[in-house]
Amino acid sequence: MRQNFDVKGGPQLGRRNLPKLRDAMKAQGLDGFYIPHEDEYQNEYLPASNDRLTWATGFTGSAGAAMVLLDKAVIFADGRYTLQVRDQTDPALIDVEGLPDPGPFGWLAQQSLAGKTFGYDPRLMTPNEFTKLEAAATKAGVSLKSVDTNPIDAAWDDRPAEPLAPVVPQPLKHAGVDAADKRDTIAKALEKDGADATIITSPASVAWAFNIRGGDVACSPLPLSRAIINKDGSADLFMDPRKASEELRTHLGNTVTLRPIDELESAIASLSGKTISLDPALASAWFFKQVEDAGAKILRQPDPVLLPKACKNATEIAGTEAAHIRDGAALTRFLHWLDTEAQSGEVTEIDAALKLESFREDLGNLNDISFETISGAGPHGALPHYRVSSASNLKLERGTLYLVDSGGQYLDGTTDVTRTVPIGDASDDMKRHYTLVLQGHIALAVVRFPKGTTGTHLDALARYPLWQAGLDYDHGTGHGVGVYLGVHEGPQRIAKAWNSIALQPGMIVSNEPGYYREGEYGIRIENLQYVTEAADIPGGERKMLGFQCLTWAPLARDLIVQDMLSPAEHEWVDQYHAEVLEKIGPLVDGEVSAWLKAACAPL
Protein backbone atom coordinates (compact mmCIF):
# COMPACT_ATOMS: atom_id res chain seq x y z
CA MET A 1 0.00 0.00 0.00
CA ARG A 2 1.58 3.25 -1.18
CA GLN A 3 -0.83 5.58 0.60
CA ASN A 4 -2.40 5.59 4.01
CA PHE A 5 -5.67 7.04 5.13
CA ASP A 6 -4.73 8.29 8.55
CA VAL A 7 -6.29 11.58 9.57
CA LYS A 8 -3.81 14.32 8.70
CA GLY A 9 -3.83 17.86 9.98
CA GLY A 10 -6.79 19.14 11.92
CA PRO A 11 -7.61 21.89 14.44
CA GLN A 12 -5.79 20.13 17.27
CA LEU A 13 -2.45 21.05 15.66
CA GLY A 14 -3.20 24.76 15.82
CA ARG A 15 -4.40 24.46 19.40
CA ARG A 16 -1.23 22.67 20.41
CA ASN A 17 1.37 24.47 18.32
CA LEU A 18 0.32 28.11 18.02
CA PRO A 19 1.23 28.79 21.68
CA LYS A 20 4.65 27.20 21.10
CA LEU A 21 5.17 29.29 18.00
CA ARG A 22 4.20 32.51 19.79
CA ASP A 23 6.67 31.77 22.59
CA ALA A 24 9.41 31.33 19.98
CA MET A 25 8.31 34.56 18.25
CA LYS A 26 8.50 36.49 21.52
CA ALA A 27 12.00 35.15 22.13
CA GLN A 28 13.04 36.65 18.77
CA GLY A 29 11.27 39.97 19.37
CA LEU A 30 8.59 39.32 16.75
CA ASP A 31 5.00 40.59 16.85
CA GLY A 32 4.04 38.62 13.76
CA PHE A 33 5.39 35.93 11.46
CA TYR A 34 4.64 35.03 7.85
CA ILE A 35 4.29 31.31 7.02
CA PRO A 36 4.16 30.29 3.34
CA HIS A 37 3.22 26.76 2.33
CA GLU A 38 6.44 26.30 0.34
CA ASP A 39 9.63 24.93 1.86
CA GLU A 40 13.31 25.70 1.24
CA TYR A 41 13.09 24.03 -2.18
CA GLN A 42 9.84 25.76 -3.21
CA ASN A 43 8.24 22.31 -3.33
CA GLU A 44 4.50 21.88 -3.76
CA TYR A 45 4.49 18.47 -2.07
CA LEU A 46 6.58 18.58 1.07
CA PRO A 47 8.59 16.10 3.08
CA ALA A 48 7.11 15.82 6.57
CA SER A 49 10.11 17.64 8.04
CA ASN A 50 9.31 20.77 6.01
CA ASP A 51 5.52 20.95 6.39
CA ARG A 52 5.54 24.05 8.59
CA LEU A 53 2.13 25.44 7.65
CA THR A 54 0.40 22.21 8.68
CA TRP A 55 2.34 22.07 11.94
CA ALA A 56 1.28 25.60 12.88
CA THR A 57 -2.35 25.54 11.72
CA GLY A 58 -3.54 22.01 10.93
CA PHE A 59 -4.25 22.83 7.26
CA THR A 60 -2.87 20.23 4.81
CA GLY A 61 -3.71 21.78 1.42
CA SER A 62 -1.05 22.06 -1.28
CA ALA A 63 -1.38 25.85 -1.49
CA GLY A 64 -1.87 28.44 1.22
CA ALA A 65 -0.18 30.76 3.70
CA ALA A 66 -0.68 32.16 7.20
CA MET A 67 0.01 35.31 9.16
CA VAL A 68 0.49 34.61 12.86
CA LEU A 69 0.39 37.52 15.30
CA LEU A 70 0.72 37.35 19.07
CA ASP A 71 -3.03 37.87 19.49
CA LYS A 72 -4.52 36.39 16.31
CA ALA A 73 -3.81 34.20 13.28
CA VAL A 74 -5.15 34.24 9.72
CA ILE A 75 -4.88 31.48 7.13
CA PHE A 76 -5.31 31.99 3.39
CA ALA A 77 -6.55 29.28 1.01
CA ASP A 78 -7.98 29.25 -2.51
CA GLY A 79 -11.28 27.96 -3.89
CA ARG A 80 -10.08 24.35 -4.02
CA TYR A 81 -9.84 24.28 -0.24
CA THR A 82 -12.72 26.47 0.91
CA LEU A 83 -14.38 23.70 2.93
CA GLN A 84 -11.21 21.81 3.85
CA VAL A 85 -9.49 24.79 5.46
CA ARG A 86 -12.50 25.43 7.70
CA ASP A 87 -12.64 21.78 8.73
CA GLN A 88 -8.93 21.62 9.57
CA THR A 89 -8.51 24.84 11.54
CA ASP A 90 -10.00 26.08 14.81
CA PRO A 91 -12.21 29.13 14.13
CA ALA A 92 -11.64 30.34 17.68
CA LEU A 93 -7.91 30.60 16.93
CA ILE A 94 -7.58 31.13 13.19
CA ASP A 95 -9.52 33.35 10.80
CA VAL A 96 -9.92 32.14 7.21
CA GLU A 97 -9.40 34.44 4.22
CA GLY A 98 -9.19 33.90 0.49
CA LEU A 99 -6.23 33.30 -1.77
CA PRO A 100 -5.33 35.21 -3.91
CA ASP A 101 -7.89 37.80 -2.80
CA PRO A 102 -7.02 39.31 -0.42
CA GLY A 103 -4.12 36.93 0.11
CA PRO A 104 -1.61 37.36 2.92
CA PHE A 105 -0.04 40.50 1.46
CA GLY A 106 -3.34 42.13 0.58
CA TRP A 107 -4.58 41.39 4.09
CA LEU A 108 -1.44 42.80 5.73
CA ALA A 109 -1.64 45.98 3.66
CA GLN A 110 -5.12 46.64 5.08
CA GLN A 111 -4.03 46.39 8.72
CA SER A 112 -2.93 49.20 11.02
CA LEU A 113 0.10 47.78 12.82
CA ALA A 114 2.43 50.73 13.23
CA GLY A 115 5.51 49.90 15.28
CA LYS A 116 5.09 46.12 15.01
CA THR A 117 7.87 43.81 13.84
CA PHE A 118 7.07 40.93 11.50
CA GLY A 119 9.48 38.11 10.85
CA TYR A 120 9.99 36.13 7.66
CA ASP A 121 12.26 33.25 6.66
CA PRO A 122 14.24 34.25 3.54
CA ARG A 123 14.83 30.60 2.69
CA LEU A 124 11.08 30.10 2.12
CA MET A 125 10.35 33.16 -0.05
CA THR A 126 11.39 34.14 -3.53
CA PRO A 127 12.48 37.76 -4.09
CA ASN A 128 9.27 38.26 -6.07
CA GLU A 129 7.23 37.24 -3.04
CA PHE A 130 9.40 39.28 -0.68
CA THR A 131 8.80 42.41 -2.77
CA LYS A 132 5.05 41.95 -2.25
CA LEU A 133 5.54 41.37 1.49
CA GLU A 134 7.72 44.46 1.77
CA ALA A 135 5.16 46.68 0.01
CA ALA A 136 2.35 45.37 2.24
CA ALA A 137 4.42 45.87 5.38
CA THR A 138 5.11 49.47 4.41
CA LYS A 139 1.39 50.17 4.06
CA ALA A 140 0.66 48.52 7.42
CA GLY A 141 3.45 50.41 9.21
CA VAL A 142 5.25 47.13 9.95
CA SER A 143 9.01 46.66 10.05
CA LEU A 144 10.32 43.36 8.65
CA LYS A 145 12.96 41.17 10.21
CA SER A 146 14.75 38.33 8.43
CA VAL A 147 15.15 35.39 10.81
CA ASP A 148 18.24 33.21 10.93
CA THR A 149 16.28 30.49 12.75
CA ASN A 150 12.68 29.97 11.76
CA PRO A 151 10.63 30.19 15.00
CA ILE A 152 8.62 27.16 13.84
CA ASP A 153 11.84 25.15 13.63
CA ALA A 154 12.82 26.41 17.08
CA ALA A 155 9.46 25.36 18.56
CA TRP A 156 9.01 22.07 16.66
CA ASP A 157 10.30 19.69 19.31
CA ASP A 158 9.18 16.48 17.56
CA ARG A 159 10.16 17.47 14.03
CA PRO A 160 10.66 14.48 11.70
CA ALA A 161 14.14 13.79 10.39
CA GLU A 162 15.07 15.02 6.92
CA PRO A 163 14.61 12.31 4.25
CA LEU A 164 17.63 10.37 3.02
CA ALA A 165 16.34 8.40 0.05
CA PRO A 166 19.05 7.07 -2.28
CA VAL A 167 19.72 9.09 -5.43
CA VAL A 168 19.93 6.92 -8.55
CA PRO A 169 20.71 7.49 -12.26
CA GLN A 170 17.82 7.86 -14.69
CA PRO A 171 18.82 5.58 -17.60
CA LEU A 172 19.48 7.17 -20.98
CA LYS A 173 16.84 4.92 -22.56
CA HIS A 174 14.26 6.88 -20.54
CA ALA A 175 15.94 10.29 -20.43
CA GLY A 176 16.62 10.43 -24.17
CA VAL A 177 19.53 12.88 -23.87
CA ASP A 178 22.81 12.37 -22.01
CA ALA A 179 23.14 14.52 -18.90
CA ALA A 180 26.46 16.01 -20.06
CA ASP A 181 24.80 17.09 -23.31
CA LYS A 182 21.95 18.70 -21.35
CA ARG A 183 24.39 20.67 -19.23
CA ASP A 184 26.39 21.69 -22.31
CA THR A 185 23.22 23.16 -23.77
CA ILE A 186 22.59 25.04 -20.53
CA ALA A 187 26.22 26.20 -20.48
CA LYS A 188 25.98 27.62 -24.00
CA ALA A 189 22.84 29.53 -23.04
CA LEU A 190 24.66 30.94 -19.99
CA GLU A 191 27.62 32.07 -22.06
CA LYS A 192 25.30 33.68 -24.62
CA ASP A 193 23.55 35.61 -21.82
CA GLY A 194 26.83 36.75 -20.29
CA ALA A 195 26.58 34.58 -17.16
CA ASP A 196 29.49 32.66 -15.65
CA ALA A 197 27.26 30.17 -13.85
CA THR A 198 23.74 29.44 -12.69
CA ILE A 199 22.56 28.17 -9.33
CA ILE A 200 19.88 25.52 -9.86
CA THR A 201 17.69 25.57 -6.76
CA SER A 202 14.74 23.41 -7.89
CA PRO A 203 15.12 19.66 -7.17
CA ALA A 204 13.13 18.88 -10.34
CA SER A 205 15.55 20.92 -12.43
CA VAL A 206 18.52 19.24 -10.77
CA ALA A 207 16.98 15.81 -11.42
CA TRP A 208 16.50 16.59 -15.12
CA ALA A 209 19.88 18.25 -15.71
CA PHE A 210 21.85 15.40 -14.12
CA ASN A 211 19.56 12.52 -15.18
CA ILE A 212 19.02 11.48 -11.58
CA ARG A 213 16.00 10.63 -9.47
CA GLY A 214 15.39 10.29 -5.73
CA GLY A 215 12.67 9.69 -3.20
CA ASP A 216 12.81 12.54 -0.71
CA VAL A 217 9.35 13.84 -1.57
CA ALA A 218 6.23 11.68 -1.43
CA CYS A 219 4.84 10.73 -4.86
CA SER A 220 7.61 12.61 -6.70
CA PRO A 221 11.01 11.00 -7.39
CA LEU A 222 12.88 14.13 -6.35
CA PRO A 223 16.32 14.30 -4.72
CA LEU A 224 16.52 17.27 -2.33
CA SER A 225 19.62 18.85 -3.83
CA ARG A 226 21.07 21.99 -5.42
CA ALA A 227 23.58 22.56 -8.20
CA ILE A 228 25.89 25.15 -9.69
CA ILE A 229 26.38 24.76 -13.45
CA ASN A 230 29.23 26.72 -15.01
CA LYS A 231 29.45 28.16 -18.51
CA ASP A 232 32.05 25.52 -19.44
CA GLY A 233 29.57 22.72 -18.65
CA SER A 234 31.22 21.63 -15.41
CA ALA A 235 29.04 21.49 -12.33
CA ASP A 236 28.90 21.08 -8.57
CA LEU A 237 26.06 18.93 -7.21
CA PHE A 238 25.18 19.53 -3.56
CA MET A 239 23.34 16.87 -1.55
CA ASP A 240 23.69 14.75 1.55
CA PRO A 241 26.54 12.32 0.69
CA ARG A 242 24.68 9.50 2.43
CA LYS A 243 22.30 9.44 -0.56
CA ALA A 244 25.08 8.75 -3.08
CA SER A 245 26.26 5.32 -4.23
CA GLU A 246 29.31 4.42 -6.30
CA GLU A 247 26.94 3.85 -9.22
CA LEU A 248 25.77 7.45 -8.90
CA ARG A 249 29.31 8.81 -8.71
CA THR A 250 30.25 6.89 -11.85
CA HIS A 251 27.12 8.15 -13.61
CA LEU A 252 27.91 11.78 -12.79
CA GLY A 253 31.35 11.55 -14.42
CA ASN A 254 34.44 13.70 -14.19
CA THR A 255 32.80 17.03 -14.99
CA VAL A 256 30.55 16.92 -11.92
CA THR A 257 31.86 17.41 -8.39
CA LEU A 258 29.63 15.85 -5.76
CA ARG A 259 29.70 17.97 -2.60
CA PRO A 260 27.92 17.90 0.78
CA ILE A 261 24.90 20.17 0.96
CA ASP A 262 26.42 22.12 3.87
CA GLU A 263 29.19 23.33 1.53
CA LEU A 264 26.70 25.24 -0.63
CA GLU A 265 27.04 28.49 1.29
CA SER A 266 30.84 28.52 1.04
CA ALA A 267 30.62 27.61 -2.65
CA ILE A 268 28.41 30.64 -3.26
CA ALA A 269 30.84 32.79 -1.28
CA SER A 270 33.58 31.84 -3.75
CA LEU A 271 31.69 33.34 -6.71
CA SER A 272 33.04 36.86 -6.11
CA GLY A 273 33.33 38.92 -9.28
CA LYS A 274 31.27 36.52 -11.39
CA THR A 275 27.86 36.96 -13.02
CA ILE A 276 25.39 34.43 -11.67
CA SER A 277 22.05 33.53 -13.23
CA LEU A 278 19.24 33.22 -10.67
CA ASP A 279 15.50 32.75 -11.11
CA PRO A 280 13.57 35.27 -8.94
CA ALA A 281 10.45 33.11 -9.24
CA LEU A 282 12.13 29.92 -7.98
CA ALA A 283 15.27 30.72 -5.99
CA SER A 284 14.66 31.95 -2.47
CA ALA A 285 15.58 35.42 -1.24
CA TRP A 286 18.34 33.70 0.78
CA PHE A 287 20.19 32.80 -2.41
CA PHE A 288 20.02 36.36 -3.71
CA LYS A 289 21.46 37.72 -0.47
CA GLN A 290 24.23 35.10 -0.42
CA VAL A 291 25.25 35.92 -3.98
CA GLU A 292 25.16 39.67 -3.30
CA ASP A 293 27.21 39.22 -0.11
CA ALA A 294 29.73 37.20 -2.11
CA GLY A 295 30.34 40.23 -4.35
CA ALA A 296 28.90 38.55 -7.46
CA LYS A 297 26.59 40.15 -10.00
CA ILE A 298 23.08 38.67 -10.31
CA LEU A 299 21.49 38.08 -13.70
CA ARG A 300 17.77 37.72 -13.01
CA GLN A 301 16.29 35.29 -15.52
CA PRO A 302 14.21 32.09 -15.58
CA ASP A 303 15.82 28.84 -14.50
CA PRO A 304 17.56 27.72 -17.74
CA VAL A 305 16.37 24.15 -17.18
CA LEU A 306 12.64 24.95 -17.13
CA LEU A 307 11.92 25.20 -20.86
CA PRO A 308 14.15 22.31 -22.02
CA LYS A 309 12.61 20.14 -19.29
CA ALA A 310 9.08 21.16 -20.30
CA CYS A 311 9.60 20.44 -24.03
CA LYS A 312 9.87 16.67 -23.95
CA ASN A 313 12.19 14.96 -26.41
CA ALA A 314 11.05 12.09 -28.63
CA THR A 315 12.21 9.44 -26.15
CA GLU A 316 10.34 11.08 -23.29
CA ILE A 317 7.16 11.35 -25.36
CA ALA A 318 7.40 7.73 -26.48
CA GLY A 319 7.96 6.57 -22.92
CA THR A 320 5.09 8.67 -21.65
CA GLU A 321 2.79 7.23 -24.33
CA ALA A 322 3.75 3.70 -23.34
CA ALA A 323 3.26 4.44 -19.62
CA HIS A 324 -0.20 5.86 -20.30
CA ILE A 325 -1.31 2.83 -22.30
CA ARG A 326 -0.25 0.47 -19.51
CA ASP A 327 -1.82 2.76 -16.94
CA GLY A 328 -4.97 2.91 -19.07
CA ALA A 329 -5.30 -0.86 -18.84
CA ALA A 330 -5.17 -0.67 -15.04
CA LEU A 331 -7.69 2.15 -15.02
CA THR A 332 -9.98 0.23 -17.38
CA ARG A 333 -9.98 -2.75 -15.02
CA PHE A 334 -10.89 -0.37 -12.24
CA LEU A 335 -13.71 1.25 -14.23
CA HIS A 336 -15.10 -2.21 -14.96
CA TRP A 337 -14.97 -2.98 -11.24
CA LEU A 338 -16.76 0.29 -10.49
CA ASP A 339 -19.48 -0.60 -12.99
CA THR A 340 -20.01 -4.06 -11.51
CA GLU A 341 -18.96 -4.89 -7.93
CA ALA A 342 -18.89 -1.27 -6.72
CA GLN A 343 -22.52 -0.71 -7.70
CA SER A 344 -23.65 -2.47 -4.52
CA GLY A 345 -23.65 0.73 -2.48
CA GLU A 346 -21.41 -0.89 0.15
CA VAL A 347 -17.98 -0.06 -1.31
CA THR A 348 -16.17 2.82 0.44
CA GLU A 349 -13.89 5.56 -0.86
CA ILE A 350 -10.91 3.83 0.74
CA ASP A 351 -11.91 0.48 -0.76
CA ALA A 352 -11.99 2.11 -4.18
CA ALA A 353 -8.65 3.91 -3.79
CA LEU A 354 -6.95 0.70 -2.69
CA LYS A 355 -8.55 -1.28 -5.51
CA LEU A 356 -7.22 1.17 -8.10
CA GLU A 357 -3.79 1.08 -6.49
CA SER A 358 -3.85 -2.73 -6.66
CA PHE A 359 -4.63 -2.68 -10.39
CA ARG A 360 -1.63 -0.39 -10.94
CA GLU A 361 0.55 -2.64 -8.76
CA ASP A 362 -0.47 -5.59 -10.93
CA LEU A 363 1.33 -3.92 -13.84
CA GLY A 364 4.60 -4.84 -12.11
CA ASN A 365 6.49 -1.62 -12.88
CA LEU A 366 4.79 0.95 -10.67
CA ASN A 367 7.39 2.93 -8.72
CA ASP A 368 4.91 5.10 -6.83
CA ILE A 369 1.59 6.83 -7.16
CA SER A 370 1.98 10.35 -8.58
CA PHE A 371 -0.19 11.89 -5.81
CA GLU A 372 -2.58 10.67 -3.15
CA THR A 373 -5.69 9.41 -4.90
CA ILE A 374 -8.66 11.76 -4.83
CA SER A 375 -11.47 9.27 -4.17
CA GLY A 376 -14.61 11.33 -3.75
CA ALA A 377 -18.08 9.85 -3.31
CA GLY A 378 -21.18 12.03 -3.49
CA PRO A 379 -20.56 15.36 -1.72
CA HIS A 380 -16.83 14.66 -1.37
CA GLY A 381 -16.55 14.79 -5.15
CA ALA A 382 -17.39 18.50 -4.88
CA LEU A 383 -14.06 19.06 -3.06
CA PRO A 384 -11.55 19.27 -5.96
CA HIS A 385 -8.56 18.24 -3.81
CA TYR A 386 -10.37 15.97 -1.36
CA ARG A 387 -8.24 13.44 0.52
CA VAL A 388 -10.11 10.51 2.00
CA SER A 389 -9.21 9.50 5.55
CA SER A 390 -10.49 6.91 7.99
CA ALA A 391 -12.56 9.68 9.56
CA SER A 392 -14.16 10.96 6.34
CA ASN A 393 -14.62 7.66 4.48
CA LEU A 394 -18.00 7.50 2.70
CA LYS A 395 -19.72 4.68 0.86
CA LEU A 396 -20.31 4.92 -2.88
CA GLU A 397 -24.07 5.07 -2.49
CA ARG A 398 -26.47 4.37 -5.32
CA GLY A 399 -27.92 7.43 -6.96
CA THR A 400 -24.67 9.39 -6.57
CA LEU A 401 -21.57 10.25 -8.59
CA TYR A 402 -18.07 9.05 -7.79
CA LEU A 403 -15.01 11.10 -8.82
CA VAL A 404 -11.55 9.54 -8.90
CA ASP A 405 -8.39 11.50 -9.75
CA SER A 406 -5.19 9.45 -9.64
CA GLY A 407 -1.91 8.66 -11.32
CA GLY A 408 1.22 6.56 -11.31
CA GLN A 409 4.96 7.10 -11.41
CA TYR A 410 6.77 4.83 -13.86
CA LEU A 411 10.39 5.00 -15.03
CA ASP A 412 9.20 6.01 -18.49
CA GLY A 413 6.38 8.40 -17.57
CA THR A 414 4.06 10.06 -15.09
CA THR A 415 0.28 9.69 -15.38
CA ASP A 416 -2.63 11.76 -14.06
CA VAL A 417 -6.23 10.98 -15.01
CA THR A 418 -9.69 11.79 -13.67
CA ARG A 419 -12.94 9.99 -14.35
CA THR A 420 -16.43 10.55 -12.95
CA VAL A 421 -18.89 7.65 -12.97
CA PRO A 422 -22.45 7.06 -11.79
CA ILE A 423 -23.21 4.71 -8.93
CA GLY A 424 -26.73 3.55 -9.66
CA ASP A 425 -28.93 5.88 -11.69
CA ALA A 426 -27.81 9.46 -12.25
CA SER A 427 -30.17 12.43 -12.16
CA ASP A 428 -30.85 14.62 -15.17
CA ASP A 429 -28.80 17.42 -13.60
CA MET A 430 -25.83 15.12 -13.15
CA LYS A 431 -26.00 14.10 -16.81
CA ARG A 432 -26.40 17.67 -18.03
CA HIS A 433 -23.46 18.91 -15.97
CA TYR A 434 -21.29 15.97 -17.04
CA THR A 435 -22.04 16.71 -20.69
CA LEU A 436 -21.18 20.40 -20.26
CA VAL A 437 -17.83 19.44 -18.73
CA LEU A 438 -17.26 16.95 -21.56
CA GLN A 439 -17.97 19.63 -24.17
CA GLY A 440 -15.35 21.88 -22.58
CA HIS A 441 -12.90 19.00 -22.49
CA ILE A 442 -13.48 18.30 -26.19
CA ALA A 443 -13.01 21.96 -27.12
CA LEU A 444 -9.56 21.97 -25.52
CA ALA A 445 -8.66 18.62 -27.04
CA VAL A 446 -9.36 19.63 -30.65
CA VAL A 447 -8.27 23.29 -30.70
CA ARG A 448 -5.69 24.47 -33.22
CA PHE A 449 -3.67 27.54 -32.30
CA PRO A 450 -0.80 29.62 -33.69
CA LYS A 451 2.69 29.69 -32.24
CA GLY A 452 2.97 32.17 -29.40
CA THR A 453 -0.33 31.11 -27.84
CA THR A 454 -0.27 30.62 -24.08
CA GLY A 455 -2.47 28.49 -21.86
CA THR A 456 -4.24 31.62 -20.68
CA HIS A 457 -5.47 32.22 -24.24
CA LEU A 458 -7.00 28.73 -24.35
CA ASP A 459 -8.50 28.47 -20.87
CA ALA A 460 -11.87 29.99 -21.80
CA LEU A 461 -12.48 27.28 -24.39
CA ALA A 462 -12.86 24.66 -21.68
CA ARG A 463 -15.13 26.92 -19.63
CA TYR A 464 -17.33 28.21 -22.45
CA PRO A 465 -20.08 25.54 -22.30
CA LEU A 466 -20.28 25.95 -18.51
CA TRP A 467 -20.28 29.73 -18.74
CA GLN A 468 -23.21 29.64 -21.14
CA ALA A 469 -25.11 27.71 -18.46
CA GLY A 470 -24.09 30.20 -15.74
CA LEU A 471 -21.53 27.82 -14.22
CA ASP A 472 -17.75 27.71 -13.66
CA TYR A 473 -15.03 26.01 -11.61
CA ASP A 474 -12.46 27.49 -9.23
CA HIS A 475 -9.27 25.80 -10.37
CA GLY A 476 -6.99 25.89 -13.38
CA THR A 477 -7.81 23.88 -16.48
CA GLY A 478 -4.40 22.41 -17.13
CA HIS A 479 -0.96 21.97 -15.56
CA GLY A 480 2.32 20.72 -16.95
CA VAL A 481 3.45 17.17 -16.13
CA GLY A 482 6.96 15.77 -15.93
CA VAL A 483 8.44 12.48 -17.14
CA TYR A 484 9.02 10.40 -14.03
CA LEU A 485 9.10 13.71 -12.20
CA GLY A 486 6.50 16.01 -10.69
CA VAL A 487 2.86 15.55 -11.64
CA HIS A 488 2.60 19.36 -11.49
CA GLU A 489 5.30 21.02 -13.57
CA GLY A 490 5.82 24.47 -15.02
CA PRO A 491 6.37 26.85 -16.57
CA GLN A 492 3.34 26.28 -18.84
CA ARG A 493 -0.20 25.97 -17.56
CA ILE A 494 -3.77 26.53 -18.74
CA ALA A 495 -5.65 28.82 -16.38
CA LYS A 496 -7.45 32.15 -16.07
CA ALA A 497 -4.44 33.68 -14.35
CA TRP A 498 -1.97 35.13 -16.84
CA ASN A 499 0.79 32.82 -17.99
CA SER A 500 3.41 34.29 -20.32
CA ILE A 501 4.91 30.99 -21.50
CA ALA A 502 3.91 30.07 -25.04
CA LEU A 503 2.87 26.47 -25.58
CA GLN A 504 5.58 24.64 -27.52
CA PRO A 505 5.87 21.18 -29.13
CA GLY A 506 6.60 18.48 -26.58
CA MET A 507 4.95 20.26 -23.64
CA ILE A 508 2.59 18.00 -21.70
CA VAL A 509 -0.49 19.59 -20.13
CA SER A 510 -3.60 18.27 -18.46
CA ASN A 511 -7.08 18.98 -19.81
CA GLU A 512 -9.40 18.92 -16.78
CA PRO A 513 -12.49 21.12 -16.69
CA GLY A 514 -14.96 20.37 -13.92
CA TYR A 515 -18.16 21.29 -12.17
CA TYR A 516 -18.83 21.10 -8.41
CA ARG A 517 -22.20 21.32 -6.70
CA GLU A 518 -21.39 21.89 -3.04
CA GLY A 519 -22.76 19.22 -0.74
CA GLU A 520 -23.95 17.00 -3.58
CA TYR A 521 -21.45 15.94 -6.25
CA GLY A 522 -18.45 16.85 -8.33
CA ILE A 523 -17.57 16.18 -11.96
CA ARG A 524 -14.14 16.33 -13.61
CA ILE A 525 -12.82 14.76 -16.80
CA GLU A 526 -9.04 14.78 -17.13
CA ASN A 527 -6.76 13.53 -19.85
CA LEU A 528 -3.13 14.45 -20.42
CA GLN A 529 -2.14 15.73 -23.86
CA TYR A 530 1.00 17.12 -25.45
CA VAL A 531 1.61 19.92 -27.90
CA THR A 532 2.36 18.89 -31.48
CA GLU A 533 2.79 20.48 -34.89
CA ALA A 534 -0.72 20.31 -36.37
CA ALA A 535 -1.60 19.21 -39.86
CA ASP A 536 -2.13 22.05 -42.31
CA ILE A 537 -5.66 23.39 -42.37
CA PRO A 538 -7.08 23.65 -45.92
CA GLY A 539 -7.17 27.32 -46.85
CA GLY A 540 -5.17 28.26 -43.78
CA GLU A 541 -2.38 30.80 -43.97
CA ARG A 542 -0.41 30.05 -40.81
CA LYS A 543 1.20 27.00 -39.30
CA MET A 544 -0.76 25.78 -36.31
CA LEU A 545 -0.09 23.74 -33.21
CA GLY A 546 -2.46 21.29 -31.59
CA PHE A 547 -2.68 18.61 -28.94
CA GLN A 548 -2.19 14.84 -29.08
CA CYS A 549 -3.98 12.83 -26.42
CA LEU A 550 -1.95 10.65 -24.03
CA THR A 551 -4.65 9.23 -21.74
CA TRP A 552 -6.78 6.27 -22.83
CA ALA A 553 -9.71 5.08 -20.72
CA PRO A 554 -13.48 5.04 -21.34
CA LEU A 555 -15.70 7.98 -20.53
CA ALA A 556 -19.00 7.51 -18.68
CA ARG A 557 -21.40 6.82 -21.55
CA ASP A 558 -24.38 6.72 -19.20
CA LEU A 559 -23.75 10.34 -18.22
CA ILE A 560 -23.59 11.76 -21.75
CA VAL A 561 -26.69 13.58 -22.98
CA GLN A 562 -26.29 12.89 -26.68
CA ASP A 563 -28.79 15.55 -27.77
CA MET A 564 -26.53 18.22 -26.23
CA LEU A 565 -23.58 17.22 -28.43
CA SER A 566 -22.88 18.76 -31.80
CA PRO A 567 -22.11 16.36 -34.66
CA ALA A 568 -18.40 17.16 -34.28
CA GLU A 569 -18.50 16.46 -30.52
CA HIS A 570 -20.40 13.24 -31.14
CA GLU A 571 -17.73 12.20 -33.65
CA TRP A 572 -14.93 13.07 -31.19
CA VAL A 573 -16.41 10.82 -28.48
CA ASP A 574 -16.78 7.91 -30.91
CA GLN A 575 -13.26 8.40 -32.29
CA TYR A 576 -11.76 8.67 -28.80
CA HIS A 577 -13.49 5.46 -27.70
CA ALA A 578 -12.37 3.69 -30.87
CA GLU A 579 -8.76 4.57 -30.02
CA VAL A 580 -9.24 3.47 -26.42
CA LEU A 581 -10.47 0.09 -27.67
CA GLU A 582 -7.60 -0.20 -30.14
CA LYS A 583 -4.89 0.63 -27.58
CA ILE A 584 -6.31 -0.92 -24.39
CA GLY A 585 -8.30 -3.82 -25.84
CA PRO A 586 -5.25 -6.10 -26.36
CA LEU A 587 -4.21 -5.59 -22.71
CA VAL A 588 -7.44 -6.84 -21.07
CA ASP A 589 -9.39 -10.05 -21.39
CA GLY A 590 -12.44 -11.92 -20.18
CA GLU A 591 -15.21 -9.90 -18.62
CA VAL A 592 -13.15 -6.72 -18.76
CA SER A 593 -12.66 -7.11 -22.51
CA ALA A 594 -16.37 -7.57 -23.13
CA TRP A 595 -17.17 -4.60 -20.87
CA LEU A 596 -14.62 -2.40 -22.65
CA LYS A 597 -16.13 -3.18 -26.06
CA ALA A 598 -19.54 -2.13 -24.80
CA ALA A 599 -18.16 0.97 -23.06
CA CYS A 600 -16.42 2.04 -26.27
CA ALA A 601 -19.22 1.27 -28.71
CA PRO A 602 -20.33 4.22 -30.86
CA LEU A 603 -22.91 6.46 -29.20
From TrEMBL:
Residues 19-148 form the Creatinase N-terminal domain. Pfam families: Creatinase_N (PF01321), Creatinase_N_2 (PF16189), Peptidase_M24 (PF00557), Peptidase_M24_C (PF16188). Residues 543-603 form the Peptidase M24 C-terminal domain. Keywords: Aminopeptidase, Hydrolase, Metal-binding, Protease. InterPro entries: Creatin/AminoP/Spt16_N, Creatinase/aminopeptidase-like, Creatinase_N, Pept_M24, Pept_M24B, Peptidase_M24_C, X-Pro_aminopeptidase_P. One of its GO terms (molecular function) is aminopeptidase activity. Residues 321-533 form the Peptidase M24 domain. Belongs to the peptidase M24B family. This is Xaa-Pro aminopeptidase. It comes from Henriciella pelagia.
